[in-house]
Request: fold
Amino acid sequence: MKKIQAIRGMNDILPEGSPTWQFLESRFSAVVKRFGYREIRFPILEQTQLFKRSIGEVTDIVEKEMYSFDDRNGDNLSLRPEGTAGCVRAADQHGLLYHQQQRLWYQGPMFRHERPQRGRYRQFHQFGVEAFGMSGPDIDAELIQISATVWQELGLLEFVKLELNNIGSAHDRCAYGRALTAFLEAHESELDADARRRMHSNPMRVLDSKSAAVQSVLADAPALSDFVSQDSCDRFEVLEQILQSVGINYVIKPNLVRGLDYYNNCVFEWTTEQLGAQSAVCGGGRYDGLAEQLGGRPTAAAGFAMGVERLVLMLETLERVPESYRRPVDAYVLTNGEGLFSLALRLAEEIRALCPGRGIVTHCGGGKYNSQIKRAFSAGARFAVVLETAGEDSPVSAKIRNLAGAGETSSAELSTIPAEVARLLEA
Ligand code: HAM
Reply:
């Protein structure tokens, strides 16, 4: 019978790979906790309408990439392609946004039907942060500082670059959209079908076009920066001053518009040269209009999300995961002789009590001493604890064999073994 394989672009994370994920998860959650952010969890499935209304009907994500289907009740649902929409929906539904400030974070799988390649998958994971109820550039700076701290904690700061842009208020963008449509109409014959369709429904999305011909037309298009209001420029300048004063380097990227429609004012991306084409490891910005657009009250909002798989690739290439995350087994307790298994179980338990956080395995499955020792080696254990007896009525003795070093063996009183193993593991 033909074996069933995983869906293309959806990865299994095997035991060898999971330490990198655990390292990332623990560093990310520790950083956001230090900044006073609280975790929120919301469903992977939402009404399709939620994503259409937030990300925008005329975007690549909504037009081409969502996993949408009718459920048994005939409701049209979608697997979430990102976290911001669900986070705003959940926070508003539960009254977290009304006259309050919120600092929230989340993590989990997202789904986009993109063409899979290195760093781009159909099920991928994000760490996200969303801040509500703060309208000034101070919170934008805090968000950027959080992301910079995450890079620092992961040992990646020197491999990423911060790109910033000011895309203006919703009002500024409307005026720009009209000017862009007029320009595109004048060049209609040079555009492809996608650009022609989008130039009326969502002209700014034409800027994302992958067609070289369309991009060459766009070279002479009106610039968004000419439509950004003084007010928006002033707040962006404050953000720049804060970033400079806290020593965060950045470059201004005038063509950074982001692929989702909900943004306004400051947007940013962190990119790397380590990953080839999929260079964005984090993206975010302000989205002050979104809560209202979803039927809630006007709510100041800003956030970002990091792509976990891309960070995993970087950490693995650069070998940044500490050894302690890679070692699931520290000591392996085995027996040389009959009838010693219960004693081995008890001994292992005593070692665990003295060595919290360490992996202590008791050999199961029987076998001769040599085959048990082989298992201890292949489990990656640093020490083997061997219980042995010369015969049924003989006393039980114990020794500790160093599997990582030159293989030296020390004997000890059975009762002192747990403390001795603890001492060796700490050394
Ligand atoms: P985004 O730029 O679409 O923004 O995604 C954020 C990050 O997710 C990207 O920088 C990238 O690292 C990762 N990513 C996106 N698509 C894929 C994929 N197919 N495979 C692997 N990684 C991917 C958002 O999703 C916004 N919700 C971010 C945000 C939060 N803005 C405000 N708050």
User: Anything to note?
Assistant: Residues 23 and 322 are 8 Å apart (CA to CA). The mean pLDDT is 95. The pocket of histidyl-adenosine monophosphate is lined by residues 82-84, 112, 114, 120-121, 124, 126, 128, 130, 259-260, 280-285, 287, 303-305, 307, 309-310 (CB under 6 Å).
